[in-house]
Amino acid sequence: MTTLLTNICELVTNDAALGDGSPLGTLRDAALVIEDGGVAWVGPAAGAPAADERVDLGGRAVVPGFVDSHTHLVFAGERSAEFAARMAGERYTGGGIATTVAATRAASDEELRALARARADAMTASGTTTFEAKSGYGLTTVDEARILRISREFTDETTFLGAHAVPAEFADDRSGYLDLVTGGMLAACAPLARWIDVFCDEDAFDEDEARAVLTAGIAAGLMPRLHGNQLGFGPGARLAVELGAASVDHCTYLTDADVAALAGSTTVATLLPTADFGTRSPYPDARRLIDAGVAVALATDCNPGTSYVTSMPFVIALAVRETGMTPAEALHAATAAGARALRRGDIGRLSTGARADLVALDAPTYVHLAYRPGSSLVHQVWRAGVPA
Ligand code: NIG
Ligand code: FE
Fold it and tell me: What is the CA(274)–ligand 1 centre distance, in A?
């Protein structure tokens, strides 16, 4: 069974060898053939091969499905009062994590599953075709494993974040909690996760603690990524490079040495501008990173504390307006670089051999994603070639 999508005004492939030669590899008046869930052909509509089924996209733009490489999908409760207090001048600290931990522990599996499903559906409706999901609101062995088990019903990209905060019952025994996270909790969670993460920042885990958590995760077969440089200058970015992490996420506060270290590495800098929005923080400087040669991704950080956001188009618009990215750079960051932050070669692009994850926009060009913030521009989403 083959499906021809045709009459595409602008097709973004993210393959620089195709189309206009830019990193987006944009083709005009294009078509694309889906076969067995993958992309079998892309090229000019006039030269398209015959197919079993033909879909006329009416001059719409088509882009790769968004890759949201950083979400906290599974949690219960909400913290709008904290948000309102911040908008009245209060400063964000990680202290509110405890509120969400209490609500999440108290929720049943069915409740957590329903909440996660609603968020996953909202992500898909706004064009996301792959998302990562972290634990981190359980902070007991049973609850962290439970969150990962539920996360795996929605995505293969699951991340163990037992080192999100020290829970209240370990308030006087920080090292005891770290022993648990790197010991029994890790042993229970590693089979349920692909990644290990740690919140390495002011008021969170310090450099030595973060290194111990990530090193233990690596020894258990997980790949490292981390939260860093969100609340202030700190060791996160350098530690990410030292350990060969796939990504360091937030990057709101970076020194020149951090930027240089990232530029000479395989670590992606993932910016989460909606978390800076939700905490009224300064925005990260994407321009400085890109000009230095750092690979930059964008993600939502969907969570109840800093960024209750599921929409990658909103992240793109905010990144263009506030972090110095062009619309082309922001789209690349939300697709190809997101895939790179998950070390995936099969997604984030629309060239032959890729998974057929794509979004048709109610717009003639992807530029409208940033040009018309707040409008729902998603016409149709395909995941692995199937309408979502
Ligand atoms: O990515 N920074 C750490 N974790 C989350 C927020 C956690 C919370 O406040 O619930 C983040 O911003
Ligand atoms: Fe986060």
Answer: 12
Cα-to-centroid distance, 238 and ligand 2 (Å): 18
State if residue 303 touches ligand 1 by the CB under 6 angstroms criterion: yes
Q: Whose CA is nearest to atom 9 of ligand 1?
A: 305
CATH fold of 2-64+348-387, please? Urease, subunit C; domain 1 (2.30.40)
Architecture per CATH, domain 67-341, reads as: Alpha-Beta Barrel (3.20)
H or E element, residue 270: strand 268-271
Q: How confident is the model at residue 20 (pLDDT cuts 50, 70, 90)?
A: confident
Cite the residue boundaries of each domain of the chain with CATH code 2.30.40.10: 2-64+348-387
What single DSSP character describes residue 347?
Answer: S
- C-alpha of 96 from chain center: 22
User: How sure is the predictor about 253, in pLDDT bands with cuts at 50, 70 and 90?
Assistant: very high
pLDDT tops 90 at residue 4: yes
Query: Is the separation of the CB atoms in 249 and 224 below 8 Å?
Result: no
Residue 11 pLDDT grade (very low, low, confident, very high; cuts 50, 70, 90): very high
Handedness of CA 371, 376, 377, 382 (dihedral sign): positive
